[in-house]
From TrEMBL:
SMART domains: ANK (SM00248). Gene3D superfamilies: Ankyrin repeat-containing domain. It comes from Abyssobacteria bacterium (strain SURF_5). This is Ankyrin repeat domain-containing protein. PANTHER family: FIBRONECTIN TYPE 3 AND ANKYRIN REPEAT DOMAINS PROTEIN 1 (PTHR24183:SF1).
Length: 126
């Protein structure tokens, strides 16, 4: 059984799931701290709520935490999110990936890091 599903089932069985959902919106929080470059907050959220759907949660524009971090040039957060399972090839509503966003802002270190996983990917919605 998937670890996320197992955790959610246990929360539900113990009656804690409504409390967890009402406390905060972890997807929104993760996107916000990734965009602002606050690696301590990102690490804390990932430690407290280790769900993959939070890491890959999209905002109204289809932007994931990885995309926000890549666009803003937060290399440490990009690396952390990828290590924790962030989907590198996810696309926002404009069809852009995290690599595309890093390229558009000339964040060369992030571009090089993301291209390590797929050297043939050229970016800008390839």
């Amino acid at each position: 059984m998937d670890a996320d599903l197992f955790f959610l089932i246990n929360l539900l069985l113990w009656g804690l799931l409504p409390f967890v959902w009402m406390t905060k919106n972890p997807e929104k929080e993760l996107r916000r701290w990734a965009a602002k470059g606050n690696s301590a907050k990102v690490k804390d959220l990932l430690r407290k709520r280790p769900f993959t759907f939070i890491i890959n949660g999209k905002d109204a524009n289809g932007m994931t935490p990885l995309m926000h971090a890549a666009r803003q040039g937060h290399t440490d957060i990009v690396r952390l999110l990828v290590e924790k399972g962030a989907e590198r090839k996810a696309r926002n509503k404009c069809g852009e990936t995290a690599l595309d966003l890093a390229l558009s802002q000339k964040h060369t270190e992030i571009v090089q890091y993301l291209k390590e996983f797929d050297p043939d990917e050229v970016g800008i919605s390839s």
